[in-house]
């Protein structure tokens, strides 16, 4: 049975861990409840509603109309502290969004600081994907904004800056191509696997995990599969049914340390 638990959690700007703590349960249970593999019973509704500060009926409503949230400025700790936030004077300024990314600077590329990477991630950074500029991010996913000259961006893509999004890589499964800490620039208008390539994806099999993987297709029709290829020979490849994967965009460039 479909429910609005995930949508309301992201609307409130909570991670799965934070909601689990408020509800007195585990992140694994939240993942199952959001995916519908565990029914959101009246008992769960009674625990989730006060944790999210919403009316219980909103959790199962078929016509949930949430007020959109705009981008807001937040303070962030040093980059090595991946998820910490601070209100101390002198902290860097960042950007937070739990609505469709619109940007606060003309021609800006959102810089996404989330546990999406080339290997096991943590929290999902993407709340929903509506294609291109309709990506909606979890709270604090957008750490800042990058502005590149149009002539430089045009060397990699014909898409406009707002459609190109930067994602920080984590993990070592793409180590022959990408290093942990690299930033991948993804063209969110390009979802076509074609002959393959490196993509930012959402893996729905394990709690909407965000990954950077090389993709290729195998089989046709009912036998069609998407292969998640690890460029690191020490890591294995995985197969997913196309319904288990949402392609955010094709990786077109990277920012790395020398």
Automatic annotation (TrEMBL):
Entry keyword set: DNA-binding, Transcription, Transcription regulation
Name of the molecule in the record: Peptidase S24-like protein
CDD domains: HTH_XRE (cd00093), S24_LexA-like (cd06529)
Residue ranges of domain HTH cro/C1-type in the record: 5-59
Superkingdom of the organism of origin: Bacteria
SMART domains: HTH_XRE
Entry-linked Gene3D superfamilies: lambda repressor-like DNA-binding domains, Umud Fragment, subunit A
Listed Basic and acidic residues bias regions: 77-88
GO molecular function: DNA binding
Lineage: Bacteria, Pseudomonadati, Pseudomonadota, Alphaproteobacteria, Hyphomicrobiales
Provenance organism: Enterovirga rhinocerotis
InterPro entries xrefs: Cro/C1-type_HTH, Lambda_DNA-bd_dom_sf, LexA-like, LexA/Signal_pep-like_sf, Peptidase_S24_S26A/B/C
Region entry Disordered, spans: 77-102
Family annotation (PROSITE patterns): HTH_CROC1
UniProt-listed PANTHER family: FELS-1 PROPHAGE TRANSCRIPTIONAL REGULATOR (PTHR40661:SF3), PTHR40661
Classification via Pfam families: HTH_31 (PF13560), Peptidase_S24 (PF00717)
Keyword Transcription assigned: yes
């Amino acid at each position: 049975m479909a429910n609005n638990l995930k949508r309301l959690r992201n609307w409130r700007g909570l991670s799965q861990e934070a909601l689990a703590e408020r509800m007195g349960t585990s992140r694994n249970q939240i993942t199952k409840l959001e995916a519908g593999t565990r029914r959101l019973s009246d008992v769960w509704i009674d625990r989730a509603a006060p944790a999210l500060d919403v009316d219980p009926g909103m959790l199962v409503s078929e016509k949930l109309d949430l007020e959109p949230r705009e981008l807001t400025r937040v303070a962030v700790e040093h980059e090595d502290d991946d998820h910490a936030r601070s209100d101390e004077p002198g902290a860097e300024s960042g950007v937070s969004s739990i609505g469709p990314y619109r940007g606060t600077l003309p021609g800006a590329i959102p810089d996404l600081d989330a546990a999406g990477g080339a290997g096991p991630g943590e929290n999902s950074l993407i709340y929903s994907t509506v294609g291109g500029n309709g990506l909606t991010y979890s709270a604090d996913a957008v750490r800042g904004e990058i502005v590149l000259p149009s002539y430089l961006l045009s060397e990699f893509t014909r898409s406009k800056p707002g459609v190109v999004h930067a994602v920080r890589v984590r993990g070592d499964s793409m180590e022959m191509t990408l290093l942990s800490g690299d930033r991948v620039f993804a063209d969110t208008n390009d979802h076509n696997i074609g002959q393959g390539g490196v993509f930012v994806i959402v893996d729905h099999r394990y709690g909407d995990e965000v990954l950077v993987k090389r993709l290729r297709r195998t089989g046709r029709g009912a036998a069609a599969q998407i292969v998640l290829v690890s460029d690191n020979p020490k890591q294995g490849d995985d197969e997913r049914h196309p319904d288990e994967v949402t392609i955010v965009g094709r990786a077109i460039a990277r920012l790395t340390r020398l």
